[in-house]
């Protein structure tokens, strides 16, 4: 799609703009040739002819009939230089231009021709400034004269639309003079006067709160001469000042990209009142914080936040203190992050059932969209929300339309505004998730339990049933989060400790999924670290049977552990990831491969089960994304080779019979993907999938090869290969 757009565009982006682009897009665009130098050469070749035509058309004593001649007989390649010719003829004296003739010609131009004229004029304008600088003219005088001449086009005679002119200037941001001219235009009194008229005509931004009929200003006064006579005009931006609303955010972006943060702050201050009318100002604040995350000063962040009506945004109680200059590098305490999650539980996450709690502020429209789980109050819920399959990235979600959305988006803005790194925020959230059950239980009971003879706490048993007595004696209590006070969380939520712990895990996954990919990568790295450092995986005294029992207990259904207060860190982490994945758009799921890559080489069946439990549920969801499905499947097969490969050296010898369930899952997953949905009697894997298995089988032990023999390209052992036309005609290897 990007290639199709660029094929019809000659636009290039400056290096300062490209550095903030996603890597894939940046690599695509960085090689584009800047043709503005060629455009100036073409202008110089046509300049004599254009100036001659403009002189006949635009001199004060020009023949009015020449307008018709120019419109009907001028060449298209010369028409695009009309405004550039006007600029040259001005010589700093716009009164020398026949504005009536110019207006008549511009009215006959199509919108595309006008836009082309504006961009060409901007290129010529900037080129002329550089030429005049070489001749010794002061820069400030040149910029002042340029702004005055542009005022002739925009304000004096309203010949050109201001918004397109500003867009053309900021698109030339690699020329520093362009941005200075934009600021000069923004500071002109003519524009401020139009803004005051706009405020008087529109009334308060929240006009829907006031009774009475809305009186629209006369169209010509609102839009200006250039736009008012058009057959069609925007319904929302039907005022020359309002037409700047979608442009100002782009100006802010360009100023930040060019490290002109002082100018960005000045624009935000000057246009704060106008931005209150922006239909998506909440989205603007969130997106600019997300796009430039890690590159904004605390002062600029506060200025951006002030675009919002702070009194009406449900920010956390301590949020203003955490973004104040005195806390420029201090990470908020765990209480702050836990309170964010509790707010999501109470206002965003659907209740476990209609009777499981009271006082919820969740919007009914939101519940119907997400689907309320039909659970009884006594049944815990894993960290997977009932979200619609139509997932959206955070930047695709527009301004909150319900209180539920407002609470979620406010939490996102808070995390983006904190003066700490994504690593610190993610680590704090993950630590809360890892220790959520003991923290809630101890704070709810007001005690820490009494230690029994085996080292276990009577309140917080941490080893699942099924292990030996000796291994139980080696159990360790899971400590609560240091510095986290959740004494009133349970009472404020209306849930039991077990229910609240599951819902907070679910809320954490939802919140992290709404953040930029910087946070996602840190989540993957932190999850891998927690898994690798899990004490029951690194404890050499654990028997294989107990490890298997523990894995089954913690991973197959985290709610088991939550119901009797024995949840493990691994179970919580898996629940967090599943909640996170369920709210993540499909195109961002590939990043999750980092988790398994960090866990490899896998040295035990227990760790292999963890890898499959993390990535396995994604396979059915990727049924229609074949490339990503293949990558995910290859990753899991590689982890299997780590344990059951011909040259593998697992920590504990493992039998193929121990992973029968994993083999069954793989069979089902590849049939699901081959069918593109639920498995049917006629479902079969795709040829590309059989190739992946064939390559993996070359490295697996014979006893495991036997279990996967049907999923190969060998027509003698695989019924799927034998009935696949491509494989029968030319066997693949």
From TrEMBL:
Ranges of compositional bias, category Polar residues: 445-472
Region entry Disordered, spans: 353-384, 445-474
Keywords linked to the UniProt accession: Nucleus, Transcription, Transcription regulation
Gene Ontology CC entries for this record: mediator complex; transcription regulator complex
Localization per Swiss-Prot or TrEMBL: Nucleus
Signal sequence coordinates: none
One Gene Ontology biological process: positive regulation of gene expression
Pfam annotation, one family: Med23
Coiled coil ranges: none
Cross-referenced InterPro entries: Mediator_Med23
PANTHER family named among the record's database cross-references: MEDIATOR OF RNA POLYMERASE II TRANSCRIPTION SUBUNIT 23
Family to which the UniProt record says this protein belongs: Belongs to the Mediator complex subunit 23 family.
Name used for this protein in its record: Mediator of RNA polymerase II transcription subunit 23
């Amino acid at each position: 799609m990007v290639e199709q757009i660029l094929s019809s565009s000659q636009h290039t982006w400056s290096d300062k703009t490209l550095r903030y682009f996603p890597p894939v897009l940046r690599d695509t665009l960085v090689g584009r040739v800047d043709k503005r130098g060629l455009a100036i050469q073409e202008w110089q070749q046509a300049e004599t002819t254009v100036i001659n035509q403009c002189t006949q058309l635009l001199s004060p004593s020009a023949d009015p009939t020449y307008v018709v001649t120019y419109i009907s007989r001028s060449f298209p390649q010369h028409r695009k230089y009309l405004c550039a010719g006007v600029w040259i003829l001005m010589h700093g004296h716009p009164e020398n231009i026949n504005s009536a003739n110019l207006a008549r010609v511009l009215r006959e131009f199509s919108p595309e021709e006008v836009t082309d004229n504006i961009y060409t004029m901007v290129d010529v304008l900037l080129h002329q400034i550089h030429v005049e600088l070489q001749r010794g003219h002061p820069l400030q005088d040149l910029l002042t004269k340029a702004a005055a001449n542009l005022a002739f086009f925009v304000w004096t005679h309203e010949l050109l639309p201001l918004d397109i002119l500003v867009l053309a200037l900021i698109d030339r941001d690699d020329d520093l003079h362009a941005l200075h001219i934009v600021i000069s235009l923004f500071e002109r009194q003519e524009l401020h006067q139009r803004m005051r008229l706009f405020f008087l005509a529109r009334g308060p931004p929240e006009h829907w709160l006031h009774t009475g009929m809305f009186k629209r200003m006369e169209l010509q006064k609102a839009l200006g001469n250039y736009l008012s006579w058009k057959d069609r005009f925007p319904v929302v931006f039907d005022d020359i000042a309002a037409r700047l609303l979608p442009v100002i955010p782009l100006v802010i972006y360009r100023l930040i990209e060019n490290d002109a943060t002082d100018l960005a702050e000045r624009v935000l201050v000057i246009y704060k009142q106008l931005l209150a009318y922006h239909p998506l100002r909440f989205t603007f604040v969130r997106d600019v914080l997300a796009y430039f995350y890690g590159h904004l000063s605390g002062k600029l962040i506060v200025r951006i936040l002030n675009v919002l009506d702070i009194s009406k945004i449900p920010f956390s109680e301590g949020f203003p203190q955490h973004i104040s200059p005195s806390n420029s590098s201090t990470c908020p305490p765990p209480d702050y992050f836990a309170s964010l999650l509790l707010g999501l539980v109470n206002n965003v996450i659907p209740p476990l059932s209609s009777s499981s709690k009271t006082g919820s502020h969740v919007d009914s429209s939101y519940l119907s969209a997400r689907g309320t789980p039909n659970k009884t109050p006594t049944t815990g819920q894993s960290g997977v929300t009932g979200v619609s399959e139509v997932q959206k990235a955070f930047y695709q979600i527009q301004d909150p339309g319900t209180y539920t959305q407002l609470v979620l988006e406010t939490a996102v803005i808070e995390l983006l505004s904190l003066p700490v790194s994504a690593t610190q925020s993610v680590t704090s959230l993950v630590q809360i998730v890892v220790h959520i059950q003991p923290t809630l239980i101890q704070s709810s009971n007001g005690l820490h339990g009494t230690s029994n003879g085996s080292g276990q706490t009577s309140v917080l048993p941490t080893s699942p049933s099924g292990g030996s007595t000796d291994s139980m004696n080696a159990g360790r209590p899971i400590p609560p989060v240091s510095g986290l006070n959740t004494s009133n969380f349970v009472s404020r939520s209306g849930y039991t400790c077990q229910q609240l712990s599951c819902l907070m895990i679910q809320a954490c996954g939802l919140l992290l999924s709404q953040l930029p990919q910087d946070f996602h990568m840190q989540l993957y790295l932190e999850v891998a670290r927690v898994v690798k450092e899990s004490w029951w995986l690194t404890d050499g005294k654990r028997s294989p049977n107990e490890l298997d029992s523990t894995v089954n207990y913690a991973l197959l259904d985290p709610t088991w552990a939550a119901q009797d207060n024995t949840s493990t860190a691994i179970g919580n982490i898996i629940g967090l990831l599943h909640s996170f994945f369920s709210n993540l758009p499909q195109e961002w799921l590939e990043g999750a491969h980092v988790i398994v890559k960090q866990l490899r080489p896998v040295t035990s069946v227990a760790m292999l089960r963890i890898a499959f439990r993390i990535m396995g549920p994604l396979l059915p969801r990727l049924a229609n994304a074949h490339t990503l499905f293949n990558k995910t499947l290859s990753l899991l097969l590689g982890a299997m080779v780590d344990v059951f490969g011909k040259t593998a050296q697992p920590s504990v010898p493992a039998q193929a019979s121990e992973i029968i369930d994993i083999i069954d899952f793989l069979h089902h997953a590849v049939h699901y993907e081959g069918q593109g949905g639920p498995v049917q009697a006629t479902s079969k894997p795709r040829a590309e999938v059989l190739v992946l298995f064939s390559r993996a089988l070359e490295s697996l032990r014979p006893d495991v090869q036997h279990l996967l023999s049907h999923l190969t390209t060998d027509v003698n052992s695989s019924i799927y290969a034998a009935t696949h036309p491509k494989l029968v005609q030319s066997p693949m290897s």
